[in-house]
Amino acid sequence: MAMKNIRAAIGQINTIVGDLKANSDKILFCIKEASAKGVDLIVFPELSITGYPPEDLLLKPRFIKENLKCLKKISQEAGDAVAVIGFVDEEKGDIYNSAAVICNKKIICVYHKMHLPNYGIFDEKRYFKPGLRNALVKTRDFSFGLNICEDIWARQSGIEEKVFSKAQFLVNISASPYHIGKFKERERIIGIKAKRFGIPIVYCNLVGGQDELVFDGRSALFGKDGLVIAEAKAFDEDLLIFDLGSARGQKKTHSKTKPISEHEEIYSALTLGLKDYVRKNNFNKVALGLSGGIDSALVACIAADALGRGNVLAISMPSRYSSAETQKDAEIIAGNLGIKFHKISIDGIFSSYLNTLSMHFKGSKPSIAEENIQARIRGNILMAFSNKFGYLVLNTGNKSETSAGYCTLYGDMAGGFSVIKDAPKKLVYELAEYRNKREGKDIIPKSIFKRAPTAELRPNQKDRDTLPPYDFLDRVIDLYVEKNKGFEDIVKELGRRDVVKKTLNMIDRSEYKRRQAPPGIKITPMAFGKDRRMPITNKFTAH
Asked: For this structure, is 204 an active site residue?
């Protein structure tokens, strides 16, 4: 089908859930910017007026009503370009995840999402009713198919292919969250659909952090051969403008962004997730405990990169068991990053606790109780700074520790946001190495990489005294949590039956701790929380 050289744009915007006015203003700003550059069509992400995911805000009638008012306002103030905007539609008491097409200050088409995802972090069937009809939009002198996110992932019916065969191109608006490997899978699926339908696909994805989720953007124009012709930025807002004629082979242009490594991708996701959580929740600065270990070192780096060094406070809180080496390394990291640094000894407070409890603990040997008191003192100090000066406290626990329950409730688990909650220990080391390499020097001292991990809560303590080696633990977590493998399958692959059994027991009985942990950034397909939902009271064993 012949097609004039349509100039199109993708408004890859970072929305805030519930901030209907700010989201609408951003949409209008992009429309005006694109119109000034001669754009015929501009496309915005899924639920771009409400932000994604709005969750139980969708149960509030006023929220739905205000989102409809915003759509009407946008339609009245939009310029000459055709605009595709995500919003929540309402019909006879039912609500729909929808896309509106605006042209000449009128809403000329509304499409209701047909395939509602209801797995992992998605819960759309709780709120929305599925649409029943495919959309073929005819406006001015071009026509296009229209669908929303999961619609393009779902298995296509012959009806859809028949409808889209009449279109010159397909528009898919999306809010597809990031996890490791998701981008390649997304690109593969959309490329297959472009070839199957034999038309270009304009794919618009959301960007930004929303609670545990990070949306990576990377919106793109796919040619009818399934190849990416133009691509928006990763982990950043972008107004991508291109000529659709190039996608039909009339004029080959390639404006793909520079590929990024997996570690750069993950680090960018963590940085954006933290930045947006802080900014969107009206905090300005963060505090964290800087122990001289690898986890807190990485979190300090991410915080400085996300928020600026002047907005990060690191507090070293040594006890009688803290080595001179870890204390020195904590100070070096803070100095290298240029962040604020305080050193507060907890030994006096710890002695006070021990003296107060001595008559009650009389006759019992020192145990994990005394160890956890130290962790809770540190959590208390951090929360005191939060209350006094308005810092958001960052938790520095990793996925390996929280999986096995190697963490203290109300102690090192304290905090408002958990930056590396979904990062296994091996990945923490790799990201720390990446950060040093990016800097061209050792922001994180080499001594931290060489030192055996330790909580320093008793003399000569090492993590390996309680846990299997981290490389083995991470492999068990990958098989059991990420891939949902059973005990015998894990033993068959890894051996060490007794160690596997002990590890699975640790993972299973720590659910009550994880349920009380702060929210953190999802970077794997199976993050604790919305992805993996296990009962706390549970007598079923994996072996």
From this structure: no
